[in-house]
Amino acid sequence: MSYGFALKGDICFSDGPASLKTLPGGYIVCLDGLCAGAWERLPERYAGLPLLDYSGKLVIPGLADLHTHAPQYAFRGAGMDLELLEWLDAHVFPEESKYSDLGYADRAYTIFADALRRGPNTRACVFATVHAPATMLLMDKLEASGLVTFVGKVNMDRNGPYPLREESAAKSAEDTVRWAEECLNRRYRNTRPILTPRFIPSCSDELMRLLKEIQARYGLPLQSHLSENQSECDWVSELCPGSATYGDAYASFGLFGGGVPTVMAHCVQSGDREIALMKRNGVYVAHCPQSNTNLVSGIAPARKFLKNGLKAGLGSDVAGGCHTSIFRAMSDAIQASKLYWRLVDQGCRPLSIEEAFYLGTVGGGSFFGKAGAFEEGFEFDAVIIDESGTPSPSPLGMKERLARAIYLSSDCGVIAKFVRGSKIL
Amino acid sequence: MSYGFALKGDICFSDGPASLKTLPGGYIVCLDGLCAGAWERLPERYAGLPLLDYSGKLVIPGLADLHTHAPQYAFRGAGMDLELLEWLDAHVFPEESKYSDLGYADRAYTIFADALRRGPNTRACVFATVHAPATMLLMDKLEASGLVTFVGKVNMDRNGPYPLREESAAKSAEDTVRWAEECLNRRYRNTRPILTPRFIPSCSDELMRLLKEIQARYGLPLQSHLSENQSECDWVSELCPGSATYGDAYASFGLFGGGVPTVMAHCVQSGDREIALMKRNGVYVAHCPQSNTNLVSGIAPARKFLKNGLKAGLGSDVAGGCHTSIFRAMSDAIQASKLYWRLVDQGCRPLSIEEAFYLGTVGGGSFFGKAGAFEEGFEFDAVIIDESGTPSPSPLGMKERLARAIYLSSDCGVIAKFVRGSKIL
């Protein structure tokens, strides 16, 4: 028999966009890093496997963060009094400029990678900065953490301050090629490069064309920002007068999905036409509710994403958002959807616990392949939750316990974590 | 010299509704439970006092929770998929019914009091249930915790399920008198009774008249709910056709401030007329942003409360809200105010960090007397914050550290807490 183990606990995972599978005192089995299934009783054929006994503990799939900025972790929770474009100038660009200094990057990324490792997320799409050396350092640290990540060296050759802004499209592309090659050389197991133009206002047309060539050559997925803030959208309209929507601006360079894994953060201002294009092209939404509130962008129409069958997951968007845990993003998403329903559109009913949990597990997890559920053939990511910080005077059902883990994530610690079958915590 | 001590640390408190006083490496002095002042350097006259050295730690006044339900702590974070009136029937009333059992109340209130003691709040206005014996048990536990609280036995003689609903106005009043007498007998130091009609729909006119008499006889302050949810407001209009506003319904019984300390939770639907009446009568708003989101009530116009000079503080409203910490209520209040500005009224600019901190400290603290700031003559409530859970790669200013304590409260532990000069943690 191949390498494997069985794990016992109070198991809970999504078995559909709006439904939960719960197996109190149930079993999951890991064989060679993959999940063999989930059962009420351990099948006889696995009786010989070592058993990890987490009886009484909540066991869920690892959570997926579809959008976060590693260098911004350093100032999360501070400077939340501005809107997007002013905030970029006042806080983001000055902080990101520091990552030309590898000593600083080492200190800051050590803190970030450690926080990510200790929380309930097992997968993440991560923005670094324009600096290739610091990006490699971050990738080394994330590889060492055991997490599964896509990490992007950022591209930006216009509308940002020197020296953070890259000196030309050609230089930005050249650095990106060198970085992509270096990633190949390092033969990471869990860490993959992802093409990362910051957003349309930061990237010249020439750079976007060069990035398309690089994408084709190296087969890189892509992450960026889309329709976050109204002023940003107005700016994109000016910059790309030929594009009917912000999404069309990416699409005009062939950088908007359509066979290539692509994730766009925010989509707060996305209208029906943009949503339809995302659907057609298989573009993922990274829904980042807390960031959209903190930066006063508004509330993204999450119900419309689900209704239209978009591929969608949740993002922490550190440091537009303050919290890395995707549990927090789940409760933020539910809360934002309630206010959207109350204040914006009574045709969009609020998200349920089941839907938020789906988005934060298999919804976003699917960007990484088969991840985010305890289904046969899925990569085995599991998180064991300590509920001792949330004692209850009477026994609770599985859904109530899951809801508390989501709403009270700060009091629910992670005591063990498995990624692709390896115990990383 | 009387009993006292000096405390050194990175001190931060509100010295106005929109301003912060910060004294890194500063001193506060406690004499006989009162604050003697705050200084950059310790005045010579206090040089002989024992010094508690919290150098490098953030030191803030205790936070005040103007609205929480002790019995609902048991189910916080679960059952957040309903609006107010349905939620009361489905979750609140069944849970509160359990408190006729003193064994259950003992288990549940032990958990609640312990959680409150460990967090950053030092003062709270607390709803218990209709059950006087369980309410006394709660008061004993809160007194033992060292926290300063107003605690109310709830009154409700209509529109609730038996046996939770009291059998008559007379019986409800009789139990309330007995409870008030018992509170006097126990000679608590920090725990005081507060009159607590649940809300207009729960209390008959006869009961309200009897409560007014009890209030006059025992000099009791009052806490209740006001204009939380639209269906609730419609119901109050039906029940009290003679009252122009919900607030007028309380006022018609003489139970809406005007010389008697009175705090009303929510005020989400309050219009200009109700706000003017609150101002005139000195009624406090307990602004409970998370609860208003969770129960899909909407967003309270916090900016209007401030603009109109209402007395106002923050409430956790456990379990409409899930989190006891008023740090969380501060960040929720800022976030809600941003969405209010974006989606409802661009004339109401978002709350600042300074304003949210003011509301959560001296704003709400003033309901308890002189509390919530390190001013001379204020009661000495101080909280020492451990920031080791939020490491930073570069040094942070005092306002940034305060902002992080507010936004990242879950990662900022309380390592020591003083109430009225006594160290309770």
What order do the helices and strands come in, and which of them pair?
The structure is a homodimer of 425-residue chains.
Chain A: E1 4-16, E2 19-31, E3 34-39, E4 51-61, E5 63-69, H1 84-97, H2 102-118, E6 121-127, H3 132-145, E7 148-152, E8 154-155, H4 169-186, E9 191-193, E10 196-197, H5 205-218, E11 222-226, H6 230-239, H7 246-251, E12 262-266, H8 272-281, E13 284-287, H9 289-294, H10 302-307, E14 312-314, H11 326-343, H12 353-365, E15 382-386, H13 398-407, E16 413-419, E17 422-423
Parallel strand pairs in A: 1-4, 5-6, 6-7, 7-9, 8-10, 11-12, 12-13, 13-14
Antiparallel strand pairs in A: 1-2, 2-3, 4-15, 15-16, 16-17
Descriptive account of the structure:
Two copies of one chain form a homodimer. Chain A has 425 residues and is an alpha/beta fold. Chain A folds into two domains: 4-61 and 373-423, Urease, subunit C, domain 1 (Roll); 63-368, Alpha-Beta Barrel (TIM Barrel), CATH 3.20.20. In chain A, 37% of the residues lie in helices and 24% in strands. Chain A contains 13 helices and 17 strands. In chain A, the strands form four sheets. A seven-stranded mixed beta sheet of chain A has the order 3-2-1-4-15-16-17. In chain A, strands 5-6-7-9 form a four-stranded parallel beta sheet. A four-stranded parallel beta sheet of chain A has the order 11-12-13-14. In chain A, a hairpin with a 2-residue loop joins strand 1 and strand 2. In chain A, helix 2 packs parallel to helix 3 (132-145), helix 4 runs parallel beside helix 5 (205-218) and helix 11 packs across helix 12 (353-365). The radius of gyration of chain A is 21 Å and the shape is globular. The two termini of chain A are 26 Å apart. The mean pLDDT of chain A is 97. Chains A and B meet through helix 2, helix 9, helix 11 and helix 13 of A and helix 2, helix 9, helix 11 and helix 13 of B.
